[in-house]
Amino acid sequence: MTETTRTEYRTCPLCEATCGLEITLRDGAVTRIRGDRDDVFSRGFICPKGSTLKQLEADPNRLRTPLVRRNGKHVPATWDEAFAEIERRLRSIIDTHGPDAVAVYLGNPNVHSMSGPLYNRVFLRALRTKNIYSASTVDQMPKHVSAGLMFGHPDLIPVPDLDRTDYLLMLGANPYESNGSLATAPDWPGRMEAIMERGGRVVVVDPRRTRTAAAASEHLFIRPGTDALLLFAMVNVLFADGRVDPGNLADLVDGLDRLRSAAADFSPEAVADTVGIEAATIRRLAHELANAETAVVYGRIGTHTAEFGTIASWLVDALNLMTGNLDCPGGAMFPLAATEQPRSRRGFQLGRFTSRVHGLPEVRGELPIATLADEIMTPGDGRVRALVTIAGNPVLSTPHSDRLDAALADLDFMVSLDLYLNETSRHADVILPGTPPLQRPHYDFAFTQLSIRNVANFSPAILPAEYDNPEEWQVLLRLAAVCAGQGADADLNTFDDMVFGTVIARSIGSPDSRIHGRSPEDILNESTGERGPIRLLEFFVRTGPYGDAYGQDPDGLTLAALRSAPHGIDLGPLQPRLPEALATPDGRIDLAPAEILADVPRLAERASQHTNGTMTLVGRRDLRSNNSWMHNLEVLIKGKERCTLQIHPSDADRFGIESGGIAKIVSAAGSVAAPVDITESIMPGVVSLPHGWGHDLSGTRLDVAATRPGVNSNKLAPGATDPLSGNAVLNGIPVEVMPG
After folding, report:
1. Is residue 429 part of a domain?
2. pLDDT per residue over 599-618, tens digit each?
């Protein structure tokens, strides 16, 4: 028999870099994956994760059929059997206790798919619960809050224009390991190095001398959790030295005087001891930022997962604006995605409702994941009795994880949609297998809105579905049908037509839409006829800023054009977009939102606090590890031990801890013991554990991960949150360290 070989191209869905992949298949099986050298954005760049999609497909632990718990054990079931169990038990809870008795947790992989951004909302609207939680309150909600309050919409997030900047100041980010986040850019290392090669500077502020910091022009150690103080001191310097110049946005900004007043008490001298950076250095940073021809400040997860995450996130954009670097080439700019739709100018609101137990405010329609265990374990009306997790493992990825693990065991019913029987889904009564990446089409709805260059890439599925399994959008529609009372056997095509009809009606009814006033029949007649996320993708592309508006612009972008461009379509560098892009009711930038200013006194108290020899814990990422499920792929965990406690030599000597030994780390929430890595790459007074480990719990099917389980650093996080965003505080946690 003659072997058939073919080559396919697709975007890697494993992190935010969106690198293009060239995939070779022989007789339908993947034989090689490498970077696509012709991809319009990544140009052949690939990290170790991208080549592992073959191993993920072949992983014997990956779920391929539904599992239902029978007599305490997970046993295979048909899809109809699984949904019969869901309908019987979930509907009973909804009917008896109301929809708020059901909670939903959405994990990180949801934004790396087509179905998640589009069909999760259909499921949630059908369920009508207020108990919605996601990974956003683990790592990024402060940025959504500050962007929403300043610019009017939580997704209107400016990104660093890396390819045109002369000066990059980066806090709490390590893109050499993470590949970047909330700033989509394949080959961050190459782009950083290019800044320095053209005579620019890259300054990294971090408690660790990360790979990124080591490669930068300059690295400054900072005490964990004090980024907001450093940034406020820089704001103070710019005002004091008369260096504030918003440039083209000067007539579009409200709040400069309020910001000046708020910054008055945060002089470099007032914060230097707490921050751990000399006052003269803080002044120099502010002046360098103001003096550079083009410059940008970028803060990421280390600044967001801290007690003042929203203030730090706000001040990043305030500094960019104050130095004339917001909405300017080489500064912080707003992408224009191919699928972007007009945004209403209703403005952004916080706290439209609050959590039952602690009264924590809602943000973007969800509650802080740090309080989910409270909602399950606290008796009374409105108690969460059932949980649906979609592509998430909160038992490992969220704070005070031991308590959440115990809470899940108390649920009346639980459903998980996941690739694996993991530390979270082991509690589920029904587990529905997720669709692996190569068996589903792909388009990055989320990350094209955060991209440092406007591009569009569509990837078709390159492998057939296993066992005739439904696609994830069909699973989500079926869950929605159950929650809406239509039953697990509802006609999904009719349901999907209703979803599409609603999207069309909303668009043609909007005066800002490119198809305003058209008849629904016109749009339906010109559609491809495909269903699910592909039909919605076609609609959003054709009605987007580059689209053909269903025939109105014959040269405009279409799904057919995307299909015929396997290496992607380059839509050009970022362009200034203000004031048109603003979604504030008055069409102006609020540089000093009242909600954020109200939290500044709390920060002022922090300015006078010193560590006095106590230890603080920070997290870290590894290039081979983005999510906990990646630890079940041998190719990604082989080699040296990665789940270690990093500690400075002076602290190791002080506590009697030896290299290669075991250290015990104790916080107010719990304790763990980890192998020791003594290194001068971490500042004295700080220790670091990586994210996503702890695969030593019983009841999972993660054979590879169990051989190198590591420890779960989130056992040490006590569940504190940034009060504005509800984001979990996972960095700067006070700990004690001792020989293990």
Report:
1. yes
2. 999 999 988 776 666 899 99
